[in-house]
Amino acid sequence: MILRLLGIPETPLNQFVFLTVAGLTLYFTLSGLSYLIFFVWGKERFHPTYLPDQQANRNAQKWGVIGTIGNVVLMMPFHILIASGHSQIYWDIGEYGWGWLIASFFLYLVFTETCIYWAHRWLHTDRGYHWLHKYHHEWRVTTSWVSMAFHPLDSFLQALPHHLFGFIFPLYGPIYLVMVSFVSVWSVMIHDRVSFVRFKWINYTGHHTLHHWYYDYNYGQFFTFWDRLMGTWKDPEVAEKSGEIPDGVLR
């Protein structure tokens, strides 16, 4: 899709190379900058109790690389189908109109949130956790490097709804590109343990910090409505005030 805009032939090899380079560049750029800002340059302000663990960081980076490349490999059939015109992704707003563009964006959010919540719940069953998700939960207290540190099948399972939507419903191309890129940004934001936004209906950083600490709360991606409905929501502000977790974990 992007290759076509750049005038590069959309062969499977070109797609694989481009997506791998783009994914790794995005990971090391976003996670690296976030780590420098919050855990190195701004350590005294944001994480004064943080003790650098280079072994843990290298392990997170290793799984970040494995997860990124593995996800590209597993997603290749979808990218090939999209490039060959076998999805419902479109580029002309006039084809479906502004009404559908706006409605489809909200439908996209509900669809992906629902799928990812339940996929995440499965990943916390004994089988899903033992096979796949335990690698991401090696870090009970996270840093920015953990943002993409997943087993490839875990990464694939949680990314799949974002790509699947465009095969089920008409989806405007720029929305697709922006959202699949934004997911990487969001993943870094919810693992850096710095909560700039504290809206209770948004699954902001504090929520995901508690998810890594307790394992069985706050499974959502962008929102908390499924957690609230299913009784798996834990409020970061309440946890912070109650002293349930050590000082410095929640920010």
Automatic annotation (TrEMBL):
Q: Superkingdom of the source?
A: Bacteria
TM region(s), chain numbering:
16-42, 63-85, 97-120, 167-190
One GO cellular component, as annotated: membrane
A single GO molecular function term of this UniProt record = iron ion binding
**Quick check: keyword Ion transport in the entry?**
no
Keyword set, alphabetical order: Membrane, Transmembrane, Transmembrane helix
Q: Which InterPro entries match?
A: Fatty_acid_hydroxylase, Sterol_Desaturase_Related
Identify the residues that the record assigns to the Fatty acid hydroxylase domain, covering every copy: 105-232
- One Pfam family in the UniProt entry: FA_hydroxylase
Q: Where does it live in the cell? A: Membrane
Its recorded name reads Sterol desaturase family protein
